[in-house]
Amino acid sequence: MTEPDVSDGGLSQLGDRSALQRAHEWVLLRGNRVTLSALVLAVLFSAVYLFVAVGLVQFDQLQPVYYVFGGLISGNLTLVTVVVSINQLLLSRTLRTPGELESQIENTEGFKHRVENAAGRVAPVRPTAFLDLLMENTRREAQRLGGLTIGPGNDDAWEEIDDLVASVTRHVDSVVELIENTDDSPFRALSATLTTNYAEQIYRARAIREQRDLTDETDAALDRLVDRLEDVDVARQYFKTVYLQDELSSLSRMLLYVGVPAEALCILVLLSLTTTPSAIPPLARDVVLPGIAVVGLAPLAVLFSYITRTATVTQRTSATIPFTTPGQEE
Predict the structure, then answer these.
(1) Which three-class secondary structure state does DSSP give residue 279?
(2) Tell me: the pLDDT tens digits for 271-285?
(3) Architecture (CATH level 2) of domain 100-244
């Protein structure tokens, strides 16, 4: 599967952010993970060769060099263990008995049918298209609520409802804009909804219903809007599950693709040093050994680039309705 790069669409209102904030968002979420790994390695290469050039780092003594490459070898072997652990985690979530699989499919189909009943048509199976349908349902209910009369003497309630409808509609429009002309990966659908889990909007809708004397039709419209917002959050949590399984699988493959050659190269260098005289040749000291030492850090760069995004996604989707966290409302 191609590594997703969401640089064409922001995960929030990126146009209003500074260059530093956009760069921070790119590193955490928007950037292609392979590209980020390459950038991390490039920075490490530059730093190491700079230190070598100014004399802060010198590969002229065999004993310290043994320690460096011995540590890289043992560290990369540990990363291989991490890969095995990740795959065990993935297997534990995917291996099910027939009864568990049937129950899971029935629950998923039940949710899908509920969305279809609200939409009045068959729901698509692609993540971004399904999210677009959820947004369409939510906008429809919000506009229906905004068009209702709530009776005389309820000016304050009308202002609250109008503000709620405007807030929901703006957010729906921003999500729809983000997923237009994008691929159908789960991360695309998930990233468009990372800035909220709709707990605040649901709280406002329920507070209006409980604190104001509204018509039965308006009460029912508020309830339907809450249901549509809850549908979006359920879908978002499901997309997160699918995304994390896919991302951890990609991480496992990348660690193996990068880790095995890096491990082999470090072992070859360490073995070759056993035949080297006490003085290391200038070319090896100033060029070869520093470069190979940085290559030995490539698995760590890959781990950094993938874990930063999975950790950020997990943090921003940690709470589910009816609760929220400050990180989900940024």
Answers:
(1) coil
(2) 888 776 666 777 777
(3) Up-down Bundle (1.20)
> Can you state the angle between helices 155-179 and 199-211, rounded to 10 degrees?
160
Alpha-carbon span 274 to 270, nearest angstrom: 7
CA 3 – CA 37 distance, rounded (Å): 12
Q: 266: closest CA among 60, 73, 66?
A: 73
Lowest mean pLDDT among 66-70, 113-117, 131-135: 66-70
CA distance to 37, 94, 117, per residue, from 30 (Å):
13, 27, 34
Look-up of token digits 């609520």: 145
CA distance 207 to 198: 14
| Digit-coded pLDDT (tens) for 215-271 | 888 889 999 999 999 999 999 999 998 898 889 888 888 998 999 999 999 999 888
Q: Which long-range contacts (CB under 8 A, 24 or more apart) does 244-247 make?
A: 244/310, 244/313, 244/314, 245/90, 245/93, 245/94, 246/1, 246/185, 246/186, 246/187, 247/187, 247/306, 247/309, 247/310
Q: How far is residue 77's CA from residue 82's CA, in Å, rounded to a whole number?
A: 9
Residue 316: half-sphere exposure toward Cβ, Cα within 13 Å? 23
In this predicted structure, the answer to whether residue 34 has a pLDDT above a threshold of 70 is yes
Domain ranges of the chain: 14-95+250-329, 100-244
CB atoms < 10 A from the CB of 107, how many?
A: 10
Give the burial string for 292-317 (b: 16+ CB within 10 Å, else e).
bbbbbbbbbbbbebbebbbebbeebb
Smallest CA-to-CA distance from 265 within 289, 240, 248 is with 289
Cα separations (Å) of 124 from 101, 115, 172? 21, 11, 18
pLDDT digits (tens, 9 = 90+) for 50-90: 998 888 888 777 888 888 889 999 988 888 888 878 777 77
| Mean pLDDT of all residues belonging to the chain | 84
